[in-house]
Amino acid sequence: MRNLLLLAMLLASATIFAQGTVTGTVMDSEMDGPLPGANVMVVGTQQGAMTDFDGNFSIDVEDSSGKLRISFVGYSPKTVQFNVSGGQTVDLGEIVLSPDANALSEVVITGVVDLAKDRQTPVAVSTIRSTEIQEKLGNQEFPEILNTTPSIYATKQGGGFGDSRITIRGFDTQNSAVMINGIPVNDMENGQVYWSNWAGLSDVASAVQVQRGLGSSKLAVSSVGGTINVVTRSAQMSEGGFVKASFGNDNYLKTIASYNTGLSDSGWSGSFLLSRTAGDGYVNGTEFEGYNYFIGVGYQPNDDHEFNFMLTGAPQQHNQRGFFTRLSSYLAYGENGEPNEKYNPDFGYRNGKEFTFSGNFYHKPVASLNWEWDITSLSKLSTTAYASFGRGGSIGSIGRINGRQSFALPLTDDGLLPIDDIFAWNSGQDVPSLGDPRQPYSGEGQYQGQFVNTGNGDRSGENGISQRSSVNSHNWFGVISNFETELTDKITLDVGADLRSYRGFHYRRLVDLMGADIYRSTADSNNPNRFLSETYDPTIGNTLNVFKSIDDEEKIDYYNDGLVRWAGVFGQLEYAGDQVSAFVQGALSNQGFKRIEYFNEAPGNQETGWENILGGNIKGGMNYNINDQHNVFGNIGYYSKQPLFDAVYINFGNTLNPNLTNEQVFGIELGYGFRSQYFNANVNIYRTSWADRFESDAATFFEDTPQEIRGTANLLGITQVHKGFEFDFYGRVTNKFKWNAMLSVGDWEYKDDVVASYFDENQNPIPGVDDAVLSLDGVKVGNAAQFTASAGVDYQIVDNLNVDATYRYADNLYADFDATDALNNPNFEVFELPSYGLLDLGASYGLDLGDNRLSFRVNVNNVTDNIYMSESNTNILAGPEDDTYDGVNTRNNVFFGWGRTWNASVAFRF
């Protein structure tokens, strides 16, 4: 009787706590197919589920009636009513979600991000969602996932971890903006984005949206080529998490763990992620280790206020390969007459461990706090305060042995740096391969009889070689605030402010004396004869303390600070009707630049004043939806863009550029879109003019002679014109077979000739070297393929098993020019490099385990195997780069080829 009573109580409690089951299928309106990975939550509770590969979900609900909220990154969420009782199962059928870039704001942790809306915002845009990033990236670099986007060209450069680069319509990140949750991350001195600092973005990104051209950002950012908006995961994600492990070629291993708390009854939520990546590197001598962490905490005290805190960073250390290795070296260390594409002459071994003169170590955490305030039903204020503390730099060599730098020393039989010989020579041992034996120092008394490295301060041939690091650290603070109000049901006004403060610290320090006793520093004119022995390991551990003072570190070779202040205001008026939408934007910004030179200026004269430069932009556009299938749009804009820091203070000193002027950018774009049940397409044409550029390049004159001079080449008034056509489309044959393709054709050239002026390290004109006219008119812009195309397919073989393939092709790829060419050949032509194609393959399998899911994925990248070799009399100063390593060239040789990489992963979601 007692057991029967207990059973009855259990059945009653089951009825009380589970009134029934609600099922359904979430569909993608764009492709008329299932939408896997969508979140399904019971409104007002923490009950939820995720759709399986076929878009299906099932939830045991506690209440007899309520609402389900269905959401997916990049889609407009939908709320559906349900009624269920008596333990029954109710099938809600198909629930259709529609793509909407504006829906990304549902998961972004800041309200200041500007994301384009399909068929509304009149800009050329592509959005890649988290599922595609997680599946198809494999062990490639984060920017490479964008290679199937029109006019995007992303490569790995030398092949080291995080050394990838990206261009948009031929412009690199110095002139293409990168935003994370609406926060600009381009370096405030040189405009660059170093992707090794952001290697963890692939783990935390909910979506990446690329706006080509001037874009829709209200801030006065450097979107000459375009804007990359990275939207990270949100603290408000439903409760659950995942663990994942990936392994691949060359001992690649990556592990990830993530957990989301969901939204509590008191309004708190959290999202946490930690990952580690390590491996030997595809290229020889490129070992790496990196970590990634993400902390998101949200708090919603009431319906009017919401706070979100984010902290993310990716400390890492990796060895590298340089970009200019001779073809003869690749052939010499290959097999059977074939070049060795993995060859790396920039490292050797010391006691069995890699010892490199080409590496990088860095940690750049970013913290932000966002406040969303719904002032009224028509007005809201979004404010984000953020801070970033970057610590780290690069690794290299300093000094010479018998007049030769490290790259000019005789290599070992394996083609590697003679590290053991350098240690021996530096300590006074006789090393015949390195020339005359080392003599002990005979200068100041207490250092007589020791072996002293005098670095770059003495080129007599007796100074020795040491390992050093070039530190480029910074402190960066900012606030962005945007006020939005609806003037009518179709017109919205935005106004706001953008404030930033930045200080960069630049100096060198010793890593390893490499057998020498002392390093003699003569670079500091205020203390010209210092004898140093303190070294600093370039490790991840030494970058973790981002608040550590640098005042006590012994600095060599150079030491200066760069300070930048930014004060901007912006405004936008937007009209969104049923058929017509339009916007007009304007922004003004004042940039203040200041430089502090500690070594080459006397105390009291080390700081410059603030050089304030006013800039801004105005742009607008209109979209017209002809009907449900066709739309057309156009936009136009003008930028008066402040120059980069090195164009303000030239020749690596405190000299103010006497010809300082803003860069002038003018862009225009037209587009057409087509939407249907089975096929979507976009067509764009554009023209961007970029004028009044200043460029300063390091240069060496009378190289390898006793009169060798290191200096700079300054070019003023460079103009580029970039024109092009873009076409992307995707569709489906059935729900199981989907395809996509893109084509972009560019015509990017320099316009008019410029004058190159040459200066030595002391900012004086070089005797015997006159100004030269550089014939740039009509010269092709290099370092990015001007013709790219791709085609991809995705096929579901059986339930939960998918295969996919993507082929990419690049052509019209040119070498870049160098200002020193004008000394010898004023009418030079850049070298055109061969076309190439790459094929990526993948397969996915998912296994549902109740409310959990186990997933498997395999990627094989760059399976095309093609090697091209050429000799040319043309001065080649930049070369082709592919997805595995850098295509390498020197002034007389070109090497071009591919290898294969693979990656397999297993993930468990709960």
TrEMBL record:
It is found in: Cell outer membrane. One of its GO terms (biological process) is siderophore transmembrane transport. The keyword Transport applies. One of its GO terms (molecular function) is siderophore uptake transmembrane transporter activity. PROSITE patterns: TONB_DEPENDENT_REC_2, TONB_DEPENDENT_REC_3. Belongs to the TonB-dependent receptor family. This is TonB-dependent receptor.
